[in-house]
Amino acid sequence: MKRKNGTIVRGAAAVGCAVLSAAPAWAQTPGSEVFADPLALLMRWLHILAAVVAIGGAFYLRFLVLPVAARQLGAEDFAKLRQALGERWRFFVHGAVALLLISGLYNYLAVTRVSHAGQPLYHMLFGIKFLLALIVFFVAEALVSSRGWSKGLRAQARLWLGLLLGVALLVILIAGVMKMMGTTAPVG
Ligand code: HEM
């Protein structure tokens, strides 16, 4: 048993060494510059993850939870469920808004503003995407707020969630166009 373990450890060490010694070779191939700025990569990951969780959650609420609950529950239980969901979903909304703003601003100001210098179309699309994202954030925060100012909006939650998803779809489509535009300066 001891001998077997020793063989496994030696095997793993050999594989580890091979990977490490191979690293410099692949690290010099075209495209590997993406790892030169780990913070930029982290921010991009956070941006995508926050968008997936927030928009996926809103979609699930709008097209599954709310319509099914409205059909299955009485008015009083439905109101209680909506209140409880709102209280829990609120933290995810706050977190996603903060992450999208921080990571999006970082990605733009530190990375893509430079790599798309001299490309007015890119910057115009960024401006439109940013304004649309602010609308999404406003509606999302209003729907999870417990304050009086957003009572009217909350009373028509399904309508506003639908609108939020429509605007978020535009944001994602614009992001796709921005991503596919060629850069004017190298990344990293
Ligand atoms: C509803 C809110 C938002 C959603 C759903 C969203 C979604 C996305 C998605 C899916 C990408 C593509 C990521 C990739 O392919 O790597 C992206 C990229 C990006 N987003 Fe957002 N985003 C939102 C808000 C924001 C905000 C508030 C900002 C700026 C403050 C921002 C700035 C950016 C930038 C600069 C990129 C990179 C575009 C490129 O690849 O050239 N986003 N966003």
Write the layout of secondary structure elements.
Elements: H1 2-27, H2 38-72, H3 75-115, H4 120-144, H5 151-155, H6 157-180
Protein described:
With 188 residues, this protein is mainly α. The protein folds into 2 domains: 32 residues; 144 residues. Helices cover 83% and strands 0% of the residues. It starts with a helix and ends in an 8-residue tail after the last helix. Bound molecules: protoporphyrin IX containing FE (HEM).
Number of DSSP helical runs: 6
Find the count of extended strands (DSSP E, 2+ residues). Answer: 0
| Chain oligomer state | single chain
Mean pLDDT: 91
Radius of gyration over C-alpha positions, nearest whole angstrom: 23 Å
Give a quick account of the main beta sheet: strands, pairing sense, barrel closure: none
Q: What is the domain tally?
A: 2
**Regions with pLDDT < 50 over 5+ consecutive residues?**
none
End-to-end Cα distance: 49 Å
Q: Give the DSSP E fraction (strand runs of 2 or more residues).
A: under 5%
Bound molecules: protoporphyrin IX containing FE
Quick overview:
With 188 residues, the chain is mainly alpha-helical. It is 83% helix and 0% strand. Residues 44, 47-48, 51, 55, 100-101, 104-105, 107-108, 112, 126, 129-130, 133, 136, 168, 171-172, 175, 178-179 line the site of protoporphyrin IX containing FE (HEM).
List keywords for this structure.
188 residues; single chain; 83% helix; binds protoporphyrin IX containing FE; 2 domains
